[in-house]
């Protein structure tokens, strides 16, 4: 995982680049569950992180750590030590990467706080997902920023009103 990686929030107001991705994990602590609005927080270490568009807003979730997010759309972006990590690294939300498949988790942390049904999720029945043709047929126009850097933000107004 030594190649640079990019990512950003759902609306495109905040974008970042990391020189290198390190280890990835899912955290089951209650703070991560609430911060991500999900069953766990998927995070990967990013080295040499720079903000290429906008800046995250922060919430100090404890006296030692803060969580970065987009104040425009709410996307979780970081989990980081207040004052910075000794090595300068930042924990990035895996889902905020342009290619989240580049950061497969290799461990779980704080498993004692996992939701009781976590182990059974993979056994749930799978419904065929809606593809792009189905979405278009429903008249849905996405406002999600594409998974790559763009020259400008925000998008032209006409693209928001499909």
Mind explaining what this structure looks like?
The structure is a single chain. This protein has helices at 30-36, 132-137, and strands at 5-8, 15-18, 20-27, 41-47, 50-53, 57-59, 65-69, 76-81, 90-93, 107-109. With 162 residues, the protein is mainly beta. The chain has one domain (5-115, 129-160): Metal Binding Protein, Guanine Nucleotide Exchange Factor, Chain A (Beta Complex). The strands form 2 sheets. A 7-stranded mixed beta sheet has the order 6-7-8-9-4-3-10. A 3-stranded antiparallel beta sheet has the order 1-2-5, with no helix packed on it. Strand 6 and strand 7 (65-69) form a beta hairpin. The model is unreliable at 158-162 (pLDDT under 50).
Class, according to the CATH hierarchy?
A: Mainly Beta
- The oligomeric state of the chains shown is single chain
Morphology: globular
Radius of gyration: 17 Å
CATH architecture label name: Beta Complex
Portion in helices: under 10%
The proportion of residues in beta strands is 25-35%
The profile of the biggest β sheet is: 7 strands, mixed
> What is the terminal separation in angstroms?
38 Å
Question: What is the string of helix and strand elements?
Answer: EEEHEEEEEEEH
Tally of extended strands?
A: 10
CATH topology: Metal Binding Protein, Guanine Nucleotide Exchange Factor, Chain A
- Classification by helices and strands: mainly beta
């Amino acid at each position: 995982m030594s190649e640079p990686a990019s990512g950003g929030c759902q609306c495109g107001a905040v974008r970042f680049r990391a020189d290198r991705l390190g280890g990835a994990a899912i955290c089951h602590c209650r703070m991560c569950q609430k911060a991500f609005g999900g069953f766990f927080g998927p995070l990967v270490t990013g080295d040499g992180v720079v903000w290429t568009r906008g800046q995250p807003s922060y919430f100090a979730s404890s006296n030692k750590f803060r969580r970065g997010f987009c104040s425009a759309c709410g996307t979780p972006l970081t989990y980081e030590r207040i004052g910075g990590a000794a090595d300068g690294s930042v924990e990035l939300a895996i889902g905020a990467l342009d290619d989240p498949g580049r950061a497969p988790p290799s461990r779980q942390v704080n498993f004692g706080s996992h939701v009781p049904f976590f182990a059974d999720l993979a056994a749930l029945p799978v419904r065929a997902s809606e593809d792009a043709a189905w979405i278009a047929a429903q008249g849905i126009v996405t406002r999600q920023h594409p998974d790559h850097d763009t020259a400008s933000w925000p998008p032209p107004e006409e693209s928001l009103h499909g």
